[in-house]
Design a protein that fits this description.
Elements lengths: L1 H27 L3 H21 L6 H19 L5 H25 L3 E3 L6 H25 L4 H27 L7 H9 L3 E5 L7 H4 L2 H6 L4 E5 L5 H6 L5 E3 L3 H7 L6 E4 L6 H5 L5 E4 L20 E4 L2 H9 L9 E3 L22 E5 L17 H10 L3 E4 L9 H21 L7 H6 L2 H7 L2 E4 L3 H7 L5 E4 L8 H4 L7 E3 L6 H11 L5 H10 L9 H10 L11 H4 L7
Parallel strand pairs: 2-3, 2-5, 3-4, 5-6, 6-7, 7-8, 9-10, 9-11, 11-12, 12-13
Antiparallel strand pairs: 1-4
Helix pairs in contact: 1-2, 1-3, 2-3, 2-5, 3-4, 3-5, 4-5, 4-6, 5-6, 14-15
GO molecular function, one term: CDP-glycerol glycerophosphotransferase activity
Protein name: CDP-glycerol glycerophosphotransferase
Organism: Micromonospora haikouensis
Length: about 575
């Protein structure tokens, strides 16, 4: 999060500072060439700011740059009053004043992908800010080349005509909506979806949805994904053939929630979930984006949902242990379908000369009490693995770059692995090769053991039957396994990594907890046949779609909680 803040502040300072400097240079000095160059640099900085701050308001900078560029243009032409240049100034002024409101109006429009509709107006409205920056750069270039003012006027009029068309269409949508709602709403009614996946999250979180898309498709019923932030529309649409609908407002949600819908699924506890939960005609099912012993995995907000699909009995115990009172009938154990492709190793593989170890440091979390990140001792861990002749797969959490310190620590680890690969020829995997080219399942299948922080990766790895070590970065010591029971079937690495040699010996040489992990595996991931593992989730989801279906009350034996074998 601090990394995002630094980038946003840097972009703001660069855009504003260069705009002011360009204006002062053009307005108060005779260095027109330098002033125009600074203006172009300021426009590039404003474009960068729009990438890191999509909602950035660049009106003040645009006014300064437009005024400065026009002053420089007039000085270059040196022809007195030029009607074409004056008209260009008026068009630029109108665009500077209109672009922000038009973009805001476009952002309030429902948009969709993978539906037979084309919502061009909101898309163009979203790009008008970029178009204005390009237009100002073209006018600056025309000034630098001393082109006739009518050239700049024609370009400005073309952009102005596009903005006018967008304004007219948005006004029509707002004040004279078509019969039957928007085109997106009509297309959704024709699609007749039976369920939706509602999604709201910070940028870079689309993995929470994409991990579930194959299984939602295998349910075999029509559905769509509702996203609440515009940046998710394109990447999620690229990962599925199902419709993806961007609903920025409650009014847009009212249009998208067509009568055929029966169930809404959720993959996190985003604040905007409440916007969808208010639709009481739907059954609301939380399916989560991972299973771990982290504190957020026992979030009391879960009680709001009608059903809570969990991987195993351990999740139910976790809520009880945290004092979160959720009726037993709301829980449905469905396994973790994403692990079905993980290869299971029944026989222990110990004493390997050149083991492959997967290291998956998590991120620092939103709050200090959820910071389980081991990157501060990551170099010690990696050097210890290299000393044992291990090939390392380094796969960091997608949010790692949001913390500058974590980003630097991760960069140091990649440098170590790259240097060792060049020196020894061991094929370490890191960077994009580990995070994009390989899936987590690929990484698990390639490895012989895991070193991880408290995270959902351990639960997934547990399915393989292979050994794992867990970092105690909270410094709980003897209480660590009590707070994070999954660590009981693994080997606990202290927060200072002082017992690294001992842990690596247990992990890679003797693995005394090999037998105990199978009981833990059933407790955390359900005891379902490997050949039809994902069917537990698919069957449970299909039952929710059956009209009038209600789950039977759990039997007393089923409701009992138990501890994993350790």
């Amino acid at each position: 999060m601090r990394g995002d803040l630094v980038r946003k502040l840097a972009a703001r300072v660069a855009a504003t500072g260069l705009a002011v400097l360009a204006f002062l240079t053009l307005a108060l000095t005779g260095a027109t060439g330098w002033g125009l160059a600074l203006a172009v640099a300021a426009l590039a900085a404003a474009g960068w700011e729009r990438r890191v701050r999509p909602a950035a308001d660049s009106t003040a900078e645009a006014v300064l740059l437009a005024a400065g560029i026009l002053v420089g243009y007039a000085r270059r032409l040196d022809a007195g009053f030029d009607p074409a240049l004056a008209a260009t100034a008026l068009v630029l002024l109108g665009l500077v004043l209109l672009v922000g409101p038009l973009r805001q109006a476009g952002d309030l429009e429902i948009r969709a992908a993978n539906l037979p509709v084309r919502s061009w107006t909101p898309l163009i409205a979203a790009r008008l800010g970029d178009a204005l920056l390009v237009l100002l750069a073209v006018v600056a270039l025309a000034a630098a080349l001393v082109l006739p003012a009518w050239v700049a006027l024609l370009v400005a009029l073309a952009v102005g005509a596009g903005a006018g068309a967008v304004a007219a269409d948005l006004a029509k949508r707002r004040f004279r909506p078509g019969a039957g709602g928007s085109a997106v709403a009509r297309a959704l009614r024709a699609h007749r979806p039976e369920f939706l996946l509602h999604f709201s999250a910070p940028p870079g979180s689309e993995y929470q949805v994409t991990m579930w898309l194959p299984y939602l498709e295998r349910i075999g019923r029509p559905f769509f994904v509702m996203v609440r932030e515009p940046e998710f529309l394109a990447p999620i649409a690229a990962a599925t053939s199902a419709p993806v609908v961007y609903c920025p407002t409650l009014k847009a949600m009212d249009e998208a929630l067509v009568p055929s819908l029966k169930v809404a699924f959720y993959v996190n506890h985003g604040a905007k979930n409440s916007h969808c939960i208010r639709f009481s005609q739907l059954t609301h099912v939380q399916i989560h984006h991972g299973d771990s012993d982290k504190a957020p995995s026992a979030n009391p907000v879960t009680a709001l949902f009608d059903r809570n699909f969990v991987a195993g009995r351990a999740a139910i115990d976790r809520y009880a242990r945290a004092g979160v009172d959720i009726p037993a009938e709301k829980f449905v154990v469905v396994g973790r379908p994403q692990v079905e492709s993980i290869e299971v190793r029944r026989a222990p593989a110990t004493g390997l000369a050149n083991p492959t170890v997967l290291y998956t440091p998590t991120w620092t979390g939103h709050h200090a009490d959820a910071n389980y990140c081991s990157l501060p001792v990551g170099e010690t861990i990696v050097r210890g693995l290299l000393a044992r002749g291990a090939t390392v797969i380094l796969r960091a959490h997608p949010y790692t770059g949001q913390n500058p310190a974590s980003a630097r620590q991760l960069a140091r680890l990649t440098e170590l692995l790259a240097a060792d690969r060049a020196r020894t020829g061991r094929q370490h995997v890191f960077g994009a090769a580990a995070s994009r080219e390989l899936s987590l399942v690929d990484c698990v299948n390639r490895s012989d053991a895991l070193v991880s922080d408290v995270s959902g990766v351990i639960s997934d790895y547990l399915y393989s039957g292979k050994p794992y070590a867990v970092t105690d970065m909270v410094g709980d010591g003897d209480r660590f396994v009590e707070r994070f029971p999954l660590a009981g079937s693994g080997y606990v690495l202290r927060s200072d990594a002082g017992n690294l040699d001992e842990v690596l010996g247990l992990l890679l040489d003797t693995d005394p907890k090999a037998a105990a992990r199978w009981g833990t595996r059933a407790h955390y991931l359900g005891d379902f046949p490997a050949e039809s593992y994902a069917e537990a989730f698919l069957s449970a989801a299909r039952r929710e779609l059956e009209p009038g279906w209600n789950p039977p009350a759990p039997r007393a034996a089923d409701a009992m909680t138990h501890s994993p074998t350790a």
